[in-house]
User: What shape does this take?
Amino acid sequence: MRTYLYILPFLLFSFFSVQGKDNFRVSFDELSGKSKKEFIDGLLSRMTIEEKIGQLNLPGYGNVEPDAKKSDIASRIRRGEVGGIFNINGVKSIRALQEVAVKESRLGIPIIIGADVCSGYKTGFPIPMGMACSFKPENVEKAARISSEEATTGGVCWTYSPMVDISRDARWGRSREGAGEDPFLGSDMAKAWVRGYQGDDLSANNTMMACVKHFALYGAAESGRDYNPVDMSRVTAMNYYLEPYKASIEAGVGSVMTSFNEFENVPATGHSWLLKDILRDAWGFKGFVVSDYTAIQEMVNHGVGDKGAVSLQAFKCGVNMDMIADFYSSSLIGLYKSGKVMEAEIDNACRRILEAKFDLGLFHNPYQYCDEERGEKVIFSEANLREARRIATESYVLLKNDGDVLPLKAAKKIAVVGPLADTKANMCGSWIDVKTNQPYGLVEELQNRYKGVEVVYSRGANLADDEKIEFNFTDNKNNVRKLQDLIIKDAEKVVEGADAIIVALGESASMSGEGASRAILELPETQLDLLRTMKATGKPIVVVLFTGRPLALQNAEPYADAILNVWMGGTDAAGAIVDVLGGAVNPTAKLTMTFPRVTGQCPIYYNHKNTGRPMAEGAWFTRYVSNYIDVVNEPLYPFGFGLSYSKYEYGEVALDKSEMNENGTVTASVKVTNVSDVDGEEIVQLYIHDKIRSITPPVKELKGYRRVALKAGESKIVQFTIDSQLLKFYNSELQFVAEPGEFEVMISGSSDNVKKAVLTLK
Ligand code: NOJ
Assistant: This one.
């Protein structure tokens, strides 16, 4: 008995320490009292070169069901060949693989689990470009916060978001993933994404690491064709494209993803000016860099070397982790043995991955992101759904509203037609996990909300003229292609006696996004046919436009009385659409990417150059000036444009002084009046034009914006403070400077139609 009493404490101690060691093998004894650096130094000193290279590897998982521990990836984890896993689904599998890493690999280093949580995890928000149209970074921050709350219950602790590529060309299908064409707004949104995902404490169990992408310049792909080369001067890159990435670094983003494109004839994934001089040296980025999906491998296709050469090039540029390609895992050891890569360089790369894991708290508790119980509480919670719906209503842009046909008036019968009227899946966009948990699509939502009103539906048109496109891109496979004559006739019959017709047109979710470039942004004939036929009925025509990018609506616009652009609005898109159509919510959003009249105007953007032969405003075709024979230069809907059920008038722009020096400030103000009888909120925008500078200036640049609530009939003075920071640009030496001279200060509710005052910087 006595002996038992003696050995009991020892047994208990051994039990707990063994448990502890098993659960937190690396961390249990080593973490306490140690700084991150000490801990990681200690760990690195015990790792073999192969284990260090293993940390740089982010493979795909293949099929891990039904028993994740028996999968190939589990064997690789056991052998220390894996730093993280790419886009794996299912918290049980993730937990099982984490257990393999922690309990069965030699050192027990946890794996990092990354996924494309780009506009929501389960609760889905509008596509990022839609959210940007609210000009409300707090919406983006909220969406990112909720995404983190949800994703971190499902095993995910690292998201491949935000995408901050500036895009001036709507043909590029990935335009929808970013904030649009403007670097000033794009930078604000970039910061908001990072804040929302990472919160104040990255090690908390409900925050995840963000990964800004795609570094860099991916949005400027030639001809808007995905993966195509990018070529531009460095000064253009600095002034118009790189700012949002820089903003994310300033906001403390933990990781950066490279991009697929080349720049200056060098693949971005191996571009030392971008990855070393700018990202690390100029901006001081301390986190880790991951390649995009097989981007290192694709450098072989780019034609700059074989497997060993491209691995070496990317590695030497500071790409720390290889997504999917398994190029590092198979070639770095040889490069090390041949002396081309030093152990210190591998240590440096490995350290960055270990630091990220440390910052995420994975060494303290590798299972903290696998929390099904919390998941049940937060995923699709009432509060999250409410926010998703609110944010959706604030992303919808009212492009036209002749005769105030919206909000919908009292009616006995409302007809809904169009190929996108009854597809629920379409509303969620096409990133992996976002689902609608709502029982209603647009038609059912209208039926449900307009009790006592007869709401009728007929498809009326196909999605595309081309059968192959229809087949590949319809998101409702039950909606098989119909004979145009028959469906139009049916629609004509169904709309008889309707007080208003809602026509749901545009593109399906899979027609934008990665690998979904389009050379024709006009609506297809089948949709136009339906629209014209509906217009001929003489009834009010409301187009609800679903799209992931600006479309070219010159042909369609005359046949619509109202156009509400609803992008892909997420989980509760339909509820939000009806909120706006019915007037429960007054639309406020403004475009963050220019809508061309015809595809041939692309790329088209508001902050363009004047040229040496500018076109006179409002003039028709003029030979030997910069314009087209067959279309005006102006877009159909410019950046910053968006209507509301309220109407606003702007007074003259006033400056409190007309001169300032480099350390001074000037206040610009304007009186904005709500001249309607509907309370509203206007997005007031500040633009500045540097009249003369050492390199050619754009005609205007966004430098501020405010959302201002104005009751019916109310006026407010809206003010902006201008300091010399707002007047700066990168000169030909890539120095960020403000040059003395005159600046036009413009304030408006859109990038066109501005009122001006002149400011002199002394
Ligand atoms: C390729 C895409 O370019 C990138 O945005 C995405 O995060 C990765 N695939 C991972 O899915």
Notes: The longest strand covers residues 680-690. The first helix runs from residue 2 to 23. The chain has a mean pLDDT of 93.
